[in-house]
Design a protein that fits this description.
6 strands, six-stranded mixed beta sheet, 5 helices, alpha/beta, Rossmann fold, single chain
Amino acid sequence: MKVIGIAASPRQGGNSQKLVECVLAGAEDAGAETELIRLGDRNIHPCIACGYCKSGHDTCAQKDDMVALYETIRAADVIVFGAPIYFARLNAQAYSLIDRLYAMLNPDFSSRLPAGKKIVIVLTCGSGDLSVAAPMYAYLKMVFGFFHCMDGGFIWQNQLFAPADLEKFPDEIAKAKALGRTLLG
């Protein structure tokens, strides 16, 4: 089983990336092959709404790092998508990826991805409570629902301001690893 983690944080080693890594560690402990993809290390342009992907082509017109990422996503059994919440919304890197996933839909909006993938959502934020994270979780479930992804779980943590703040929440780290171990079943 292939489990990929997509960390949308622009910060290397940021809290959302670390929480994604915890889920991946649990999946690896259970025998999965894992891979971490940091969007901050990739050259992914925003969608330019050219319509290329809906006019007889099965991919995007832009030839940036998203081309390889399409194949990685297609081959994955589980996608662990992690992003920080900035000012009550996902960060910019998350939206560039989400918008470019549009190319994974056929002109009739059926999915070009195989059905049955699981999606795990990992969110972090500074201030705010679950009322800040819940709408982003619902939104991401809807987006990945276009691709018939099944809900694989949700982990979130607030009060994360500095890069090492996740270490203050060992229970959430343990929950993320436990969630990762359940993904193979």
